[in-house]
Amino acid sequence: MDDKVRELAERLLSRGYDDLPAREQKVLRRIAARTAIASNFNERYDQQLSFGERVADRVAAFGGSWSFIIIFSVVIVLWVIANAWLMTRPADPYPFVFLNLILSMLAAIQAPVIMMSQNRQAAKDRLEAAHDYEVNLKAELEILSLHEKVDDIRVRQLEDICLRLEAKMDSLTRG
Questions:
Q1: Which residue of 70, 85, 129, 175 has the smallest Cβ count within 10 Å?
Q2: Would you list the domain boundaries of the chain?
Q3: Contact between 75 and 83 (Cβ < 8 Å)
Q4: Contact, 90 vs 84, CB < 8 A?
């Protein structure tokens, strides 16, 4: 199989196998072995996530949703109404210092968790792009290989036609 991979590198990429990056060598080995590269990347990636990474993703998903904005707005409005107008002795009188403290703490916790999720998502995107490159490269090389096969078939057909024409011409000149 090693010779087949090296021949593929020369024929399809016009480069020596050893001169290729590891990713392209992997693709050529998969082509030679006739194995697939494409897979459900998201499923594989999601299975390896730690508990903290899953929590960060859920917090980021909820914190960046309209549900969060609506719930948060309702809670703040209720807090202000309760402390400004309904309570005779409000727990957090205007200017709502305790509410500001709660909001600051929420932002202090939520921002790094969302950033962790974004960093993980960026790393996932880079891995997915590398996987997509491998799939696309394999598809391109397979197409090049198919073109060569079709070209070989055409050449053989033309040779066959030429041989038939020669035979016909010989029969016409003899007869």
A1: 175
A2: 36-174
A3: no
A4: yes
